[in-house]
Structure formats: C-alpha cells, structure tokens
Amino acid sequence: MKKILFLLLPLFLYSCEDVLDKKNLSAIDESYVWDDPNMMELNVNSFYSNWMPKGLFGSLYDLGIISDEARSGYDGRAVKWINGARFTADGTDVPCQVWYYGGIRKANEFLQGIEEKYILPSNASQTKIDERNRFIGEVKFFRAHLYWEMVKVYGGVPVITKVIDKDEKDPSILYPKRESTDSCFNFIIRELKEAADMLPKTYSAEDWGRITKGAALAYCARVQLFRASPLFNTSNEEKYWQEAYNTYKDVIGLGVYDLHPVFSEIWKEKGESNKEIILFRDYMKGKITHGWDSANMMRSQAVGDAAACCPVQELVDAFPMIDGTPYIKTNPEIDPYSNRDPRLRETVVWNGDTYGPRKEKVYTYVSESNDPASPMYNFDGIDSHQSATSTGYYMRKMKDESLDGQKGDYGYGFGSYTQWVEIRYAEVLLGLAEAANEIGLTEEGVEQIKLLRKRAGILPGKDNRYGIPANISYDAFKELVQNERYIELAFENKRYWDLRRWKLAHIKLSEQLHAMEIRKKINNDEVTYTYTRRLQRHDKSNKPIFREEFYFLPLPKDELLKNKNLEQNEDWK
After folding, report:
1. Which of 88, 122, 157, 509 has its CA 20 to 30 A from that of 472?
2. What distance in Å separates the CA atoms of residue 119 and residue 35, rounded to the nearest whole number?
C-alpha cells in the first residue's frame, strides 16, 4: 500500500500512458476497462485515497476539541461548537453532518460492473479468483464505511446498492426513503462480513496497508459495539453484546495482531513488524504529509501554527497511578505528575517537562512579566497568547519529537508523516472487555485490561491485577473500561463517539472543563510551583451544551430539498 496510497494521481497517469496513446479515457468503452485488472485495481485504489479515514490528522482537530479531551488555544469554530445551543436544522455549521452518496455511487458502479462484466472462466487460476474477490471485498468495505459514517449520526438513511441510471423515471428509485436504523445495521454488518470472507489475512510488503480480513472484522465489531450500546440498544438486549463479543474474538483468533511493546512507537513504526495496527492511513516524508505536529506544537517551537489541541485537566486526572489505582486529586496540587501511569507522559507535555530533538524544557506556568529577561516571564505560559496552551498542557501523543522546526521539518499544515491508525489491537481488546462484561464474563474483560496496563508500564502488584480490584462488580468494571478507553485511545477520534453511544454526551459534554493554573515562586535560589485547577477560559465564557437532540443530527437541508421522500429526524422538524 505504501506504493499506492499516496501517489494515486501520478500512478494513474503513468500507468495509463499506453492507454492514452490509443484512446481518450473519457471515451473508452467499458469492455476495455473490465478486461484489464490493472484498470480495476486503479479504481479500487481511488477508494483508499478518497475514503480511508484521516481522523484528527485531517479534520482540523475539531472532534478532540469538542469532546472532553482538549480545548484549543485559539478562539475558532470548534470552540464555538462546544456550545451547541445555536445549532438548528437549517444550519450549515453543524459538526459531523456528512452525506456520502457520491462515494457510494462510485462503489455501486464498481461492484455492479465487476459482477456483470468481469466474469472469470471456469478454469481461472486461484490467483485470478483471489484477485477478483479482493477487489470486491475492498470496495464492499468502503461502501459499508461510508454508510456507517452517516448512520452513526443520523440513524437510518436510504440504502442504495445499485447504480441509478440517469434516465430512470421511477420516483421511488430516484427519491428513495430512509431505511430503519435496524435495517441499516443489518446491511452494514452483512457487507463487512462478506468483505472479510473475500479478503486475505495478510499481504506481502508491496501491498502493505490494504484492507485485510482482520480490518473488515474489527470494523464490523466496532459497528456491532455501537449497536449494542445504549444509544441504539435502548432495551439493552444481550444478543447485540454477544454478537460484538463474537466478532472481537474472531479478530483475535486470526492470530495476526498483538500489542506493540512501546506505546509511543505505534504511530511511527511502519511495516508488517508493527502488529498493533489493523486499519490505517499512511503518510510519506517529503511527499504526502499532515500537520499534526505543527498544529499541536508549543509556542516556543512553533512554525506557523501551535496549540490547536491542548489536553484538559479532566483527561490528565483520568490517568491512574503507576500501581493502577485511581488518581486522587487535590486542589491545590503539590506534585501532580509523579508516579503516574506512564501513558500520561506519552500523551501530554506538562510544566517543566522536555520536548523535541534537543529535549528543550517546556514551562506552562502563568507569565507574570512582559519582560523576556525577567525570571517570571514565560513565552509558553498558559493563556499568554492564542498560540499558547489554554489548559496548562501541550500535546505529545502521535507526534514525532525528532522533527526539528529550526530545520524546516514542519510548518503550517505539513511535515508530519506519522500514520493515522484508525483501528489498532488495543481497541479490539477494549471492545472485547466491554462486551464481555455485558454478557456476564467480567473476569475475561479484566484480562484484556491487564494486557493494556502491562504494556503501559503499570505495576502488576502482588495480586497481578494491575490495580484492578479483585471481584470487581459489573458496574465498577463498566466504569473502569470507559475510563481506560478515555486514556488509552485519547485523541484517536474515539472519545466523542464513545460518549454518544453510551448516551453520556449530554452529561459529559455539558460540563465545564478545567485547566491547570501554575504559578511560579522564587525564594532566594529555590524555585517552586503551585498547581490550582480552574475553569478553562473558553468554558468559562462559552458554557458547553450538548442537548439530547444532538444524539441524532439533522439531515442536511440541501438533501431534504433534493429528495421529497427524505424525512427529517423528529427532534429537528
């Protein structure tokens, strides 16, 4: 995949040079395309380029900022989004209001074409059969993905699986109605299962990064976990939890994946040796890059951008102690970062920590002087500037500290080439733990969390339970798993959606979040700091609001105008 994913346009042009010598591509007849597997593969590759998730690397970091993970240093759109009271059904600035039928049509065109026009002879080689199945499986995966991105925000949507001809006259086909949410779930899960059956477990190095059987199954398990959760499973039917549990076990049973031994390396180590990544979007140094490092740089090391996504105090407090027991907060704090879960330092940069290729000290205490020569001046200090932290913390997670701004390695919107990992093995273990607890297998769930905590560097303790109480109850373990997802998957585009599916968003995303205000004190030659929690400045002036009707967003107004049979969600009529 490393040769395909990010060089699609040049690949298409150069691979088609011979074709261009013969015919104009816009006039080429379909038989030519469907007789050439190379042309079909180019078509499939376009789905990777257009529809492989980019997560927070491609979304201006908004979902990190409007969840309870972070706030920005800037006073921009996402800061206003935390107060959703201004959203209306006719609005154009509603987050996550997506409509992917353009991509779905392309998928339908491909799947319909390959079924009707690429018929293998009875004596076709197994290699040809596998190749054709792979093409179908990959495109089915992406079609399911596009449908899921809509269903998780709207509920049921129209399900279209055939190409609608431009000369079609039947109004029921031209203007399809919404399917039930349950019907959409059935369709998406079936698509993903069928895709998994057609896809290989692994690829050779040349095709590293293509959709595998494990990726389709892990994505299916994620969808099933949503279906089992309170947002969609209002009567808490156990069968849906069982289905998610079974699919997660299927992923593990493949024997392909494992936890990476070093948490911070998950996003940097590329290739088959990284057994943790299941579904990802790759980037290439000097060719296709993203702006995560630049956007989340501390002000003193910034090049054109900084402090887009500053971790909040609630996230910092969620990380346990080194022995796995919960962190007990006080206010003010004396020494809030010693003996903590090592994942905390891999996620945030705190006051007095080091960062970057030269391991420069970073301080976030309040700047109490405008004179750079004063010991009380702090260029990186909290709220000292819009490009400085607004929470007392800077981002470390998924960044590459070898990048050097002084050498031009990064700048506004470019320079980072860490991979976006959409699904990794840790998510599978967390999903299995959650589902196991719901079907009465709490101790099996405990074993999954122990694996994560062991990798993190949590001490096992005499009972080898990594801080998890013996005989933990269903309710206590449910809360523990929710917290473990919060910290393990922080900034991986999971928390916002978790709060929605658990139906906790109207509570958690309506709470004002906090910053850590740090004051520097100098007594003779001794420097000390005081740590006091206070409201983050945006939350103080613009109280967060997530109303119940936000769980299912309004369908885009323009789509309602185009299709008279589309019905708006009840709370937005």
Report:
1. 509
2. 9
pLDDT at residue 116 above 50? yes
* 8 Å CB contact between 267 and 421: yes
Question: Whole-angstrom Cα distance, residue 544 to residue 540?
Answer: 9
pLDDT in tens, 360-401: 999 999 999 999 999 999 999 999 998 999 999 999 999 999
Query: What CA–CA distance (Å, rounded) separates 425 from 539?
Result: 34
Distance, in Å, from the CA atom of 314 to the CA atom of 68, rounded to the nearest integer, reads 7
CB 177 within 8 Å of CB 158? yes
The per-residue DSSP string of 406-444 comes to GGTS-BTTB-B-PPEEEEEHHHHHHHHHHHHHHTT-HHH
SS3 for 127?
Answer: helix
Burial of 473 (0-12, 13-18, 19+ CB in 10 A): exposed
**Phi, psi dihedral angles at 254 (to 5 degrees):** -65, -25
242-255 burial, b for 16+ CB within 10 Å, e for fewer? bbbbebbbbbbebe
Task: Give the number of other Cβ atoms within 10 Å of residue 509's Cβ.
Answer: 22
Backbone angles phi, psi at 475, to 5 degrees: -65, -45
Tally of CB atoms within 10 A around 459? 15
Q: Are strands 310-311 and 526-535 parallel, antiparallel or unpaired?
A: unpaired
The full 3-state SS of 205-271, as one line of letters, equals: HHHCCCCCHHHHHHHHHHHHHHHHCCCCCCCCCHHHHHHHHHHHHHHHHCCCCCCCCCHHHCCCCCC
Name which of 341, 292, 358, 325 is nearest 70 in CA terms: 292
Among 323, 304, 327, 324, CA closest to 314: 327
| Closest by Cα among 519, 63, 54 to 308 | 63
Q: What is the C-alpha to C-alpha distance for residues 255 and 222, in angstroms, rounded to an integer?
A: 19
Instruction: Note the pLDDT of residue 140.
Output: 98
Cα angle at 178 between 173 and 182, to 5 degrees? 130
The arithmetic mean of pLDDT across residues 329-352, rounded, is 95
Find where tokens 């849906």 sit.
240
Contact 398, 274 (CB under 8 A): no
Q: What integer is the mean pLDDT of 99-127?
A: 96
d(CA 86, CA 544): 11
Q: What is the DSSP letter of 158?
A: -
8 burial type by CB count under 10 A (0-12 exposed, 13-18 middle, 19+ buried): middle
Instruction: Return the structure tokens found at 485.
Output: 């997802």
Compute and round to an integer the Cα radius of gyration of the chain. Answer: 25
